[in-house]
Automatic annotation (TrEMBL):
Name listed for the protein in its UniProt record: Hemerythrin-like domain-containing protein
Segments for region (Disordered): 189-215
Signal peptide: none
Residue stretches of biased makeup (Basic and acidic residues): 190-204
Amino acid sequence: MSTLFQSIKEDHEEMYEYHDQYKRARERGDVEAQARWARQLTWEIARHAVGEEIVVYPLMEKHLGDKGRELADHDRKEHQSVKERLYKLESLQPGSEEYDKLMTVIMDSLHHHNDDEEIKDLPLLEPAIGEQASKEAAQSFKRTKKLVPTRAHPAIPNKPPFETLLGLLEAPIDKIKDYFAAFPTEEEMKDAKEELKHRDHDAAASRAAAQAGNQ
Ligand SMILES: [Fe+2]
Ligand SMILES: [Fe+2]
């Protein structure tokens, strides 16, 4: 089981990887690929931000006192500015100079922000909560991310609001939290998964039994 630091860092690396893919597509002049990697990257950033805002920053506020609140506020402000820039990026044409410039600005500020989390935030938080709690937080963080769609779903454009990237970026964190609260809890899912191991529906046998019953 990974710790919170490991999970967060893994995500950060994922962002840098997608950005590298984007840059390579740009170097070879493949606009379609640039658009695809930029999209993958922006969704990843947005999902990651939601996960941190729901799981990580509240932990910092709870366990690190004034310092934690200060760091969390600062981080949320930086998220907000990245979100606004991602929002703007959506309105620009992939392949254009303007698009690429904004992408560079986004990634520069994000790099700084991510480094802060890795260098300042998590090294303070992890010892304060202990290894077990860190691992549990990592699980919640991953679960939260799983509930955010990995990409826009073309079949259901407006439901729920964050099925689209812009909807997700605009949604207040409380609204997202409420949405998640409408899903089964981890505990409930555990029971369901346990039961699932023993499920073995024999379609042919039950069909035959039903038919025999009808006769
Ligand atoms: Fe962050
Ligand atoms: Fe982060």
